[in-house]
Amino acid sequence: MAEPPLAPVIVVGCTKGGIGRTALAVNLAAMLALAGKRTLLVDLDGKGDATASVGLPRSRRGKSLARYSEPWSFLKDTFNAPRPPGLDVWPGGPAIERIQAELAESGDAHHLDRGLEQARRRYRAIVIDAPSDLGPVARTALASGDCLLIPMSPAAHHEEAVNETIRAALAEKERFAVYGVRIESRARLQGDEDQSDEREPVAGFDLLDSTICFDPDTFEAAAQQGLPVFEAAPGSLAARCFLELGREVMRLVL
Ligand SMILES: Nc1ncnc2c1ncn2[C@@H]1O[C@H](COP(=O)(O)OP(=O)(O)O)[C@@H](O)[C@H]1O
Ligand SMILES: [Mg+2]
Q1: Nearest alpha-carbon partner for 93 in 129, 128, 58
Q2: pLDDT tens-digit profile of 194-237?
Q3: What domain count does the chain have?
Q4: Ligand 1 atom 14: the closest Cα is on which residue?
């Protein structure tokens, strides 16, 4: 029997923090799982926000570079998210600092790529919430990635960070599918706002057709409850945005 295709690794990253990377990674991973694609969310941020956002405890110890780069150990360190079924998480948190320190000595960016070898067979998609620094852990994320998603908020003025992130990705890998994900005001999404000033992409990458609505209350409340937006606020515009985004990502990447 033919081997099933390996799960693509989707890295959500940007060198500017606070722009919705974690919300994008968590809700996209949950949406893919809801669509029946068994998904692993890998939280590589020392803050562990993605882990907390799916209702799991942040990782405080027990991580090491050896476990990070060994495929079966990597799998053993994953947990089922409470919701939805089919979503597993490799938790992040302060314990990542040890890996960061060990990686700084190693100089090899391919540790995670090796660590994900079994995960790529077991899952249909892997979504990484990458840290905003371009430190050694972030570089292993980029080196393992097939696709990079960058949140694009009109208010963020983070063109330089976007360019820097893309340069870092291309430095790890020549062929990298890079997509910008627009975060738009509700008025704009619902067509009540002038659409005339269509923004041009910053650099050589594509903007996805689907967009995420700017809705601090819904995203904050869902993260606090440890649930994806489609569970915490079913029927909300935020939930519908992720339904569309999930479909588009499946078409393009899976
Ligand atoms: N689409 C969005 N609309 C409004 N607020 C958002 C959105 N996505 C995230 N947020 C909020 O913005 C803050 C930063 O988001 P987060 O995903 O943690 O960013 P990052 O991971 O880039 O630091 C959080 O309070 C989060 O709830
Ligand atoms: Mg984050």
Answers
A1: 58
A2: 655 555 545 568 999 999 999 999 999 999 999 999 999 999 99
A3: 1
A4: 18
Residue pair 116/78 in contact by the 8 Å Cβ criterion:
no
Q: Which atom of ligand 1 is nearest to the CA of 151?
A: 22
Task: Answer yes or no: is 93 within a domain.
Answer: yes
Task: Give the total residue count for the chain.
Answer: 254
Ligand 1 pocket (Cβ < 6 Å) reads 17-23, 49, 183, 212, 214-216, 219-220, 223
Domain that holds residue 120: 9-252
Q: Cα of 3 to ligand 2 centre, how many Å?
A: 34
Kindly report whether the global pTM for this prediction surpasses the value 0.85: yes
The answer to whether residue 2 sits within a structural domain is: no
Cis bond leading into 201, ω under 30°?
A: no
Residue 4 belongs to some domain of the structure: no
Q: Which of 19, 165, 225 to mutate to test the pocket of ligand 1 (most atoms within 8 A of CB)?
A: 19
